[in-house]
Amino acid sequence: MAGLKPNTPQPTALTLHQGARMLDIAFDDGSAFSLPCEYLRVYSPSAEVRGHGAGPGVLQTGKREVNIVAIEPVGNYAVKLVFDDGHDSGLYSWDWLFELGRDQTTLWQDYLDKLTAHGASRDQSSNASRDRLDNASRAPQRHD
Fold first, then answer.
1. The pTM is what?
2. What's the pLDDT band for 127 if we cut at 50, 70, 90?
3. HSE (side-chain half, CA atoms, 13 Å) at 2
């Protein structure tokens, strides 16, 4: 069994390029993908990102500069990616990595559209400024 689904191609190579913040993955069906660390982080399969149960996931913002610091094998079906922002709770099955590669263009555009719809940014400093403005607008007003 290659992953959680019996017909998923098996990875033959995973190569992390930390300087470029990219993970290259080659599969035994001949397909190969270069996946940015940011993309892998915002599409983490963890419950923290995807949501618990039927609930909505949490939009990941400010992850443009995120990097992978470790890749840990999990059995014969997945890897755990450890990111430099402390996130390490998602198990990336071969199925999920293959889907992320195959559907990268569509999924990335979906992510960018969600950021725009929420007035959020890929940059951490932009989100911090927006959060400060949001908090200031919610501050109680003093009337003398």
1. 0.82
2. low
3. 16
